[in-house]
């Protein structure tokens, strides 16, 4: 009924394991602790926190588990989330040189890895999905990055919109996720976070919770 407010939103979340140069990936900590953190602080009305998965920091070699993870959001096995009209994937990745959070607007169909991924793959100027065309092809999120960024900035977070998710595993996963989202009528967003040395763990947990709350409003 109209008086019940907007339909529930189910948000599924991923982080990454360690990778070259980052032995402690903050996104593994954030995503592993998010369910408990959100429960402790009270889930906003209408928000269903779905799966929280930690992905291998790898491209091609980790595609099968990536698609199993993405598929799980729409399989309808979770009866709670099947009542939800909207499903959003939120992927967290680390940018070890960053001083603030970055909400990524797009991914590019190019894999150019500056170092091998955790499975030893080091592609150079390879299209992520050849059927999509060349390496200059981009896919954009359908979520309003500028508005989300403004809202989070007003809440006091150091956050910016970004049009460049790099060409490493973060961009690789985001590109696949955006394509999957478009094909399945869901939404996807990638967020880069700094190291805990730069922005402490508690602030990053608060940011993750605030972001999910923001996504209830936009879409």
TrEMBL record:
Stored Pfam families: Peptidase_C15
Keywords: Cytoplasm, Hydrolase, Protease, Thiol protease
Signal peptide: none
CDD domains membership: Peptidase_C15 (cd00501)
UniProt record similarity statement: Belongs to the peptidase C15 family.
Protein name: Pyrrolidone-carboxylate peptidase
Highest taxon of source: Eukaryota
